[in-house]
Design brief:
Helix content is 22%, strand content 41%. It is an alpha+beta fold. It has one domain. A four-stranded antiparallel beta sheet has the order 3-6-5-4, covered by helices on one side. Strands 1-2 form a two-stranded antiparallel ribbon. Helix 1 crosses helix 2. The N terminus is likely disordered.
C-alpha cells in the first residue's frame, strides 16, 4: 500500500501509514466525542501481524507516554500501536476507546 500522509478530524488524526480494519472509524468516532483540549491528537503507528487478533476490534492501553497514552488495537490478524495525546486518565481513555470501538 502506498504511504499516505493525511490529517483528519480537525487535524487531530495524523495518518502517515496504513491503518488496520476498523481502527480509523473507531478513532474518528473518538475524536468527534471529545474536544481538542481533551484529546489533542492520535498518531497510528507500526502494524504487525499477530495470531490472536481475530474477531471484533479490541483495544487496550499499554503504557503512559510523555503527553498521554500508548494503546494497541487488535483486528483482522494485525496489531497497531496508537499514540494518543490526551488529558484523560487511563480508565477514562479505555472506556472511551471501547465505546468508540463498539465494545
Amino acid at each position: 500500500m502506498a504511504r499516505m500522509r493525511l490529517r483528519a478530524e480537525n487535524n487531530r488524526l495524523k495518518i502517515e501509514h496504513s491503518i488496520i480494519d476498523g481502527v480509523r472509524e473507531m478513532l474518528e468516532r473518538l475524536l468527534r466525542e471529545y474536544p481538542d483540549d481533551v484529546i489533542r491528537s492520535v498518531v497510528p503507528g507500526r502494524i504487525s501481524k499477530v495470531r490472536d487478533a481475530r474477531g471484533t476490534l479490541k483495544v487496550h492501553i499499554t503504557v503512559p507516554v510523555l503527553n498521554g497514552w500508548k494503546a494497541i488495537a487488535l483486528s483482522a490478524g494485525a496489531r497497531q500501536e496508537l499514540f494518543i495525546s490526551t488529558t484523560l486518565s487511563q480508565e477514562e481513555l479505555l472506556a472511551a476507546l471501547r465505546r468508540s470501538a463498539g465494545g
